[in-house]
Specification:
By secondary structure, the protein is mostly beta strands. Helix content is 0%, strand content 50%. The two termini are 18 Å apart.
Length: 171
Amino acid sequence: MSEIRVDTISEKTSTSGVTIDSLLIKDGGCAVLDNKPAVLVTNSGNQSISNSTHTQITYDTETIDTDSAFASNTFTVPSGEGGMYWIYSHGAMQGIDSGEFIQLRLHINDSANGFYDNRMTSHATDTEMKYGGGGAFNLSAGDTVKFFVFQNSGDAQNLTNAVGYIYKLGT
């Protein structure tokens, strides 16, 4: 392994600082990790969710997509980027009555992942339910991730404020 020893790193011509893409300082220093690939997607409008069906969430805005890994509402782990990923989603739905529920479900490689099922049951009439959930998952190159939502209100309801966030945990 090569070694570089310096006392000071200073900007050459800029006053905005020194940029280093990935840096890990040990022995009491700070750690700044790359966390790529990363995706942050949102839905700017409402998505109608039919009664008693698991419906894939559609996202129309990609705020972050570092490796072009998100397409057709599916995140695909890029080649050479297998590892541990943080996966999170949230949204809201109005019109859920007492005893009815909404459920967030994650699919990995087109199979529902039981660890990620997040169900919330209403306690009152016409409640706005806000959900959110996340977790760490070990993914391999080529694995796919999709977000689904379910509701059982008796008729279609609108999903609002849907967000999906996926990023590789640093090494």
